[in-house]
Amino acid sequence: MRISTLLTSSIPFGHNFFNRRALASSSLAFRFRTMADSSEDSLRKALSEKQSEVESQGNQVRALKEAGAAKTELDAAVKALNALKLEKTSIEKNLQAIISGPDGGSVNKEAFRQAVVNTLERRLFYIPSFKIYGGVAGLYDYGPPGCAVKSNVLGFWRQHFVLEENMLEVDCPCVTPEIVLKASGHVEKFTDLMVKDEKSGTCYRADHLLKDFCKEKLEKDLRITSEMAMELKEVLSNLDVLSAEELGECIKRYGITAPDTRNPLSNPYPFNLMFQTSIGPSGVSTGFMRPETAQGIFVNFRDLYYYNGNKLPFAAAQIGQAFRNEISPRQGLLRVREFTLAEIEHFVDPEDKSHPKFSDVAHLEFLMFPRDEQKPGHSARIISIGEAVASKIVDNETLGYFIGRVYLFLTHLGIDKNRLRFRQHLANEMAHYAQDCWDAEIETSYGWIECVGIADRSAYDLKAHSEKSKVDLEAQEKYSEPREVEKLVISPVKKVIGLAFKVDQKKVLEALEAMKEEEALKMKTDLESKGEVEFYVCTLGKNVSINSSMVTISKEKKKEHQRVFTPSVIEPSFGIGRIIYCLYEHSYYMRPSRDGNEQFNVFRFPPLVAPIKCTVFPLVQKPEYEEVSKVISKSLTASGISHKIDITGTSIGKRYARTDELGVPFAITVDSTLSLRDLRTWADVWSAFPHHSSGSVDE
Amino acid sequence: MRISTLLTSSIPFGHNFFNRRALASSSLAFRFRTMADSSEDSLRKALSEKQSEVESQGNQVRALKEAGAAKTELDAAVKALNALKLEKTSIEKNLQAIISGPDGGSVNKEAFRQAVVNTLERRLFYIPSFKIYGGVAGLYDYGPPGCAVKSNVLGFWRQHFVLEENMLEVDCPCVTPEIVLKASGHVEKFTDLMVKDEKSGTCYRADHLLKDFCKEKLEKDLRITSEMAMELKEVLSNLDVLSAEELGECIKRYGITAPDTRNPLSNPYPFNLMFQTSIGPSGVSTGFMRPETAQGIFVNFRDLYYYNGNKLPFAAAQIGQAFRNEISPRQGLLRVREFTLAEIEHFVDPEDKSHPKFSDVAHLEFLMFPRDEQKPGHSARIISIGEAVASKIVDNETLGYFIGRVYLFLTHLGIDKNRLRFRQHLANEMAHYAQDCWDAEIETSYGWIECVGIADRSAYDLKAHSEKSKVDLEAQEKYSEPREVEKLVISPVKKVIGLAFKVDQKKVLEALEAMKEEEALKMKTDLESKGEVEFYVCTLGKNVSINSSMVTISKEKKKEHQRVFTPSVIEPSFGIGRIIYCLYEHSYYMRPSRDGNEQFNVFRFPPLVAPIKCTVFPLVQKPEYEEVSKVISKSLTASGISHKIDITGTSIGKRYARTDELGVPFAITVDSTLSLRDLRTWADVWSAFPHHSSGSVDE
To answer: Which CATH number fits domain A484-565: 3.10.100.10, 3.30.720.200, 3.40.50.2300, 1.10.510.10?
Structure first.
C-alpha cells in the first residue's frame, strides 16, 4: 500500500457515520500538533546521523583496543566517543521535549486528569455502573452531584435553545424498528472495523490498535527515521478514512499483534455498533436501540410542519438517550455505550438560509479553524462569525447563527473560551450531500474533543425517509401572486397512435408521456427537421416509429401558485456527557491550604451549573445558630435553591474544603451576623481584603 | 378446575412482577363495581324465571293452535304471552342499566375518551411513533405540548420530592447486564403468560383473552345464569393470580379461540417481557433494557450510604426510561413498551420507621381503601393519613408520610381528588417479603388505573444483590454507649480434640464452631447430663463422640459498640406517562360556543403543568399593537415563560378556542389597554361579569 493513496480514498458514508469515526480517535490532535514538525524532522535526521557517528567512533575505539594502540591515542578516541554520546543525548532530549509538547506532555496531562477523575469519583459525580458486579466497560452512573450538573445543563439548554428560539421539542422512544434505521443508512453503514485475537477471540477496534502503535513509535522510539515518522503521522491523520483492506495491510506491515497476548490478529471486518433487540413476542420484528435522536424528528416532519402552521423555517429539538455498542470503550466518560444527546433539526428553505436574528450574534469573536487553514504550521484563529459568514468561510447565515449560539451556550456553562474552537470539516470528512459542517471542539487532557457538531445536511434525511416510507416530506411556498413559469407539455394524439400501434398503443402513450425534458426537446427538434424518429419503448423492448402527427411537444407558460420542495436541515447535535466532562476539567483547580501543607480540590462552577448552589453553616456550634440555619434552609428549599446544611462541629476550613470539591459557589455562615461567601471570587477576595480568623479556621 | 381453588393459589413472585400483573387488567374495576351485585343477581334470576315462563306460555299457545282451540281461548293465551314478553323486556332493561352503570356505561366512557384522544392527537400532545412507517404498537412520541407537560411534571417532581426531601438523585444506564437482573429475579420471573394462534402464530396475552371473554359475557349476554355470572366475576377478580395451567383450563372450558381467526389456541406459556440484547462485540455477554430504574439505586447503596455520611434514613431517586416488551399492547398511553419512571428508594432502619416530618401530612384526608374493606358493597372512604397510621391501617409513619406526599403531588398537578384513591394491596397481591403496599389509583374512562405504587419492600432487594455480588450492603448504628448483649461462645479444646481425632481433628473443630445456637445449647445440656454425645460431622459423613473435656459451651455477656443490619426500603414508584394521561382526562371538558352551535375542547391545566403558559395577541390587526405584542413576548422569553404570539387576523373567539385546546391558562390581549385572561376561572368570570363584545368575537 502506498500511503499517498490513503489521502484520496473515498468516504464511505455521511455525516453521522463519519462523525462517529472522527470522534473515535484524537488523531486530529496529532494532525495539528504542527509547529514542531520541521524542527522534529531535522532533529530526527540529526539524531540518526549522530547515531552513525557514535557507531563508527565506537568501532574505531574497538579497533584501537584490538590493535593494542598507545594509551594516549586510545584515550583521545574514547574521549571523542563520549563527546559524541553526549551530543546524541542532548539531541534526544530536545527531540523528546518536542514530541511531548511545551507543557511536559502526556505525563503532566495524565496526572492532571487523574486528580480530576479521583475527585469526581470520590464525590460521586460519576460511578462505574454496576460496580458491585465488577462493572461494564463504557457504562457510567451519574451520582448525586453529577446528576444535578446534568439536570442544570439540560435545563439551560432548554432555556437557551428551545424557549429562546421557540423550538418544537419532541420525545421519541429509544426502541426503533429496523425499517427506520435502514432508511437512515445505519443498518448498513453504522459500523467500526474490528479485529479478533485469532486464538483467544478477544475483539479490538482495528484503528485503535494501529493508532496506539503509531503513537507509541512516534513518542517513545527516538530512533525511527524521519521518513518513518512522516509515514506514521500520515497514517494517524488518515485513520478515519482507511478501508478495511488498508487497515489490514497496515497491521500486517507493522507486525501489530493482540496487545494482551501477542497473538496474531484476524483481518479487519465491520461490526455494527447498534444494540439489536426484538420487538414483540414473535421474534420476527427486529429493532435497535437508537444510535442518535435525530431520526425521531425526521419521521415526524409532516406533523411538526403542520403544527407550525405549514411555515418554514422552524426547528424541532429532542433530548434523550442514545446507544452505541462500542467494540472496546476507553477514554472514560468520553466514549461510552449509552449517553444523552440533545439534538436540533432546523428545517429551512434551501433557497433562503438567511436568519432574522443573525445580527444578534454577528459581533461574536472566537477561535475558528477553517478547512483551508488546517495544515502544518497553522492553528485556529479568532474570527468574528459575522466576518466568517460574509467571507463565505461559513456557508450561510443560519449555520453561522447556530455556531454563535453554541459558542454562547458553552461559554455560559463555564467552558474556557481559550480552549474552545470551531473546526470546519475537511472535504473528505463530510458526507457527499453535506453543505458545510463545523465541530465545536474543546481542549482537554485527552486532546481536542468534539462536543457539538453543527452541520448543514441539505435535504438528505427527509428524502431518504420519504423514499422508504412513500410519504411526502415536503414543504410548500405559497406565492403572494401566481408566478409564470415555462413548462414542457407533451400531448400525444391518441387517435393516430391507436390506429398505428393497436394493442401496443397504451405502452407507447405512456412512454411518450414519461419522457424527460431533454429527450422530449430532442424529439421535438428531430420531428421538426425529419418528420419521423425512432423511439425506444422499454416496456415493449423495441423501437417504434413516431411521426409529427402522433405527438405535439411544446413549451407553454403556466401560472403557478406555489413551489413544492424538500427542506434543508441544519443540525446542531450536542454530546451532553462530553460537554459535562470538559466542564469538569475546565472548572477544576487546586488551592493550597493556609499553612501550605495541603492541596484542596476545587471545582469553580458557575452558579448556573453548580450541583449545590449554597451551603449553610453556623460558624460555631450553638443551638440558636442551628435554629437560624434551619430557617434559612427552609426558605432556600421553598425558593427551589439546592443547598446543604452542615451543622457538624468540623472546622470552617474543612467545611469549605468539602464544599469546594462539590463546586458549591455560595456559602452562608451564621454567626452573630450572616455572611455570604462567593466562591467565584474567593481567591481574589481572600487576597484583597482583611479577613476574620478564628481558632477553628485552618485555612 | 374448581374456581374456589383460584382464591388460594400462591403468588409466584414479588412486588414488581405482581404489580405489573395487577396493572395489566382493570379487573379491580369489576371487583368493586359492587353495590349493584345483589340486585343484578336477583334480576338475572328473575330474567331466567321469566324466560322459562315465556317458553312454557309459548308452548301452550302453539299447542292451542295445533289443537284448533277457540279464538277467545287462543287470544287470551297470546295476550298472556305478550304480557310475559313485556315483563321480560323490562327486566332486561333494568339488568342492562345495572350492568352499564349509572352514567350510561362503557358507551359514554368511550365517547368521552375518543373526544380527549382526538384532541390530544390533533394537537400533537402525542403521536404514534414511526407513524409514516405504519407505527409500532405500544410506542408513542410526545409532540411539543406533550413534551412540555412531561417536562413540567418532572420538574415539579424534582422540586416536590428530590429538593424538598434532600434526596440523592442518580442517573443510571438503561442497558443492564444479565447478572443484575438475575439477582433481582427479573430474568426468571418477569413474564406474562402467552398463547399462540395455532395456525397463524399470532401471539396474545392469555389473561387478556380470558378477561375479554368474561367482560363480554357479563355485559352483553343477559341470559347467562346467576351462577355463571358469579363464576365469571370470580375469574375476573382472580385473573392476576391464575397459573398457566389454570388459565389454560379456563380457555378450554369456555371455548375461547383466537379473536382474529377463530383458530384454536396453544396452551399458555411464560414470555419474558424484557428487551434482550448483547453487550460488546463478542456476543457472549447478554444484556437487557432495564424494566425499572430501581435496580440502579440498589446496586449503588454502599456508595450512596457513604455519600450520606453513613447515616440513615436517606432516600435516593431516579428518573429514567424503562422498557417492557409487552405481548400485545393496548389501552393507548396506559400500556406501552417504553416509558418514563420516577422512582424513590427510601432506606430506613427496620427497627425505626418513624418519620420526622410525618406531622406535616398527618392532617391530610383523602379516599383510602384498606385491604379489609375491599369486598362487595364497600368502596374507598375518606380517612386522614394520621388516623390510618395511628390505627395501623397503614403499617408505619414513613410509608404514611409518602402516601401523604404522593397525594399532594398528584392533586397539585391537577388530578381530581374525588377520582383518586389509595388502595392497599390484598394479602395475595403482595410479595411474601413486603410489609405493606398501597397504590395511588386514578379513575379514568378505562376504570381505576394504578399510577403510583408505594411499597415497604423490607430488606429484600439489598439482600438479593448482596448475596449475588458477595458485597455487603449493610448499615451500622453506632451506639452512643456500648451495649451489653448475651452471646453464645463455643470453645473447643484443641489439644484434647487433636489427641482424640488425629487426622480428622480439623473437620471436627470446624463442625463444632459452626453449630447453630439451638444445636449448641442442646449439646451443652446433653453434655451436662450425660457427659458424652454423638455429633454428626457432615464433612466426615459420620458421627463422632464428643465428651465434656473436648468443648465448653457458655453464654457470655459482651459489650457491643454498634449494630449492623440490612436497611428496609420504602419505594414510591411513579408511572409518569400514566399520570400524564390521567391528567389529560381530568383536565378535559367541552364548552359550547356563544351561539351554542359548536363545542370547543378545553384542557384546564394548572399553570404549573400547562405546556404553554400564556398567549399574546392584539385584539385587532394594527402595526402598533403588533409591536407591543412583540415586546411582551421578548420579556416573557427572558423570564423563561413559555408562550405563543398570535398575530393572525383570526377572530378572538377562534384564537381562544385554539389556545384552549392546548390548555393555555393565561392570555394577554393588546388593545388600547392590556387585559389578562385567566382560563382557570373563565367560565365563572364569563357568567358573572358583563363583557365587552366586538364584531370579531364569535363566542
So the answer is: 3.30.720.200
